[in-house]
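Predict the 3D structure for this chain.
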Amino acid sequence: MNKILRYSFVALLAMVFGNVYADTEVTFTLNEPDAITALGIALPEAGQGTKVEEINKDGVKIVVTSGSTDSRIYQGSGGNAGKYDFRIYKNGGSLTFTAGTNVVKKIVFTGNNLGNLSGDGYATDTWNGSAASVTLTATGTATIYTITVTYGEASADDVQAPKFGVASGMYFEPQTVALTCETEGAKILYTISGEDPVYTDDSNYTGVFYDGTPLSITKTTTIKAMAVKGGKTSSIVTAIYTIVNVENPGTEASPFTVADALTLIDALSNGATTSETYYVKGVVVGTPEIQKKSDGTFYGNANFDIAAEAGGTTKLTCYRLKGLDNANIDSEDYIKEGDEVVVTGQLQKYVKDDVVTPEVKNGYIYSLNGTTTGITAVKAAQQNGAIYNVAGQMVTPSYKGLVIKNGRKYIQK
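Done. Predicted structure below.
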């Protein structure tokens, strides 16, 4: 065999046998109309969505379940018409990835609020590991533009990546996290410094070998772990636990204080918004801005700041909140400085020009000076005319409480 033929034969062998265990990368583009229709998904009308239950491409299958809202391809409306994305929601939304008889080794997402996806081996926007099936669940709304899946053949020598007993996420109390590995006889090497564990041999490594005792996580911590067996190592998996120490849980029955809300927002990354809605109690400081159109009519919302006490300087901005019962605000004096309020909405770490503004958004005033009824305005009745209680009985001006006068509801003080 001459030299040229010999080199060609060697190159052919490398191409054939060298690629036996080569990995394959498949990208699902979910924000471009042509790519969406190529996946067999019908494009929705502006402001509408097309429910998605399964997506297939080049040997990779994604089974999709729905949560509080159908998982869907969504087209924006108004100025966002023609813009598409894939949305998955909490309370049941999930993505399960398989690649036939192969194993999934890596999944990378682009989009917004990708921290709302959760699963063993997933952190920020990437899943790493080696598994025949990977399921990620939605803890809040995630907006996805692309998904890139890397898969390949399983090897008998593969060491499975460790799994975390508690999913990455934000918690209001310490967590106890156990580590496990499905590869029999494997040891787990981990770090809590944020650095990758490194293994050369049993005498040369960086990290701590897990002894089976669950880890106590009392502050915000990043755990990175890999499994080791017979000198071979698994991929490194990461879990991030954000521990927020607050006085109250932010529920309707026990609202956050302003300090609680600011602590939670401080733990968010710049520009991030919580997937959950919370309740926050405070006092209005400064003059609220009632949003009005150019023709003098009301948009139905208001901007205002709240603090822990009247005149407080540590403030939380309430951005475009509606009134009681999520109804429109329809008067200039609906809310004023010194009013005691409980507001509800998502919390956001808003950043513009490197200035951070902690906000409550996408919400409404739950309680105003102790009142939670959906009345049109909260103020003392000062108009002339007969006064009626809510049962339709005429009452005197000395009557205290919710009344109807001149066809409108008021609180008479």
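The chain is about 10% helix and 45% strand.
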